[in-house]
Amino acid sequence: MTLINTAEIRKFLESLPYPEHCINCEGTDEKAENPVHHPSYEITPSCNLRCIFCYSKIAELKNKAPKPGYYGSLNPKAITISQYGEPFVFGTERVVKIIRRLREKFGEVRIDIQTNGTLLDPEILGNEADIVMISLNAGSRESYREITGIDCFEKVVENIMKMSEQTYTVVRTVFIPGVNDRELEKIAEIASNVEELFLQPISIYRENSELMKRVDVERAERLGEFIKTAYRLSEIAEVRIPGCLLLNIRWFLREHDIGDLLLIRRDAFGSVPVMQREWQFSF
């Protein structure tokens, strides 16, 4: 049994930087009463993958997926493309055009892209975006195919490496106990070549039947399991965790011991994800 140095974990949490993607997000603002994610431009809710944990396909099945367009404040400091679906379904040229239109409208604004990395063309995208977050939830070809439904592991890894030469690149990984926990060190080794490994705890949707068969719900609901995993992977890559979660962890540690934090259970189950920001326009 591996002994856990709780003092070192506390030090890790207290010194851990916020993810670059979370800078200027209300979720990292202690004064925000009802924080929302910074604005996003949604291109499509569709995706070429069939990930067993996907929330976007649940929203689409329930007719809750957002229509294409810009959502949120008209005075943005950062814009995400996109939180639903795969933005490169319609081609890299289309994404570049939208980025340029957003910069024409808003001026000096940070543009972050969330993508599965299978369809983007690094040569066309170049450094048009300030941050490119590429999802990678498996460390091998076989596991990638089991989780996503397609055989594109090598392509994604190749695009991660190519984008790291162009702009600030993040490997975005969901921690799914019982599914990919044995793959995380391999993922971290890949992520050691980029700026960040952004590790997120799984949100479980009961409609995702394949995930329900495989996920270890007991471990998924232990906050300590997630924190200790992030700490372990930080020896391999530049690990980050969601800024809103990190903010709440630090609040808790002001009043409580690290041991109490590691015993907390979280509700890992989510309801149908709904866009919380107002639609403004589309290009």
UniProtKB/TrEMBL annotation:
Keywords: 4Fe-4S, Iron, Iron-sulfur, Metal-binding, S-adenosyl-L-methionine. The keyword Thylakoid does not apply. Its cofactor is [4Fe-4S] cluster. Residues 33-233 form the Radical SAM core domain. GO terms for biological process: molybdopterin cofactor biosynthetic process. One of its GO terms (molecular function) is catalytic activity. PROSITE patterns: MOAA_NIFB_PQQE, RADICAL_SAM. The keyword Iron applies. InterPro entries: Aldolase_TIM, Elp3/MiaA/NifB-like_rSAM, MoaA_NifB_PqqE_Fe-S-bd_CS, rSAM, rSAM_sf. CDD domains: Radical_SAM. It comes from the Archaea. This is Radical SAM protein. The lineage of its organism: Archaea, Methanobacteriati, Methanobacteriota, Archaeoglobi, Archaeoglobales.
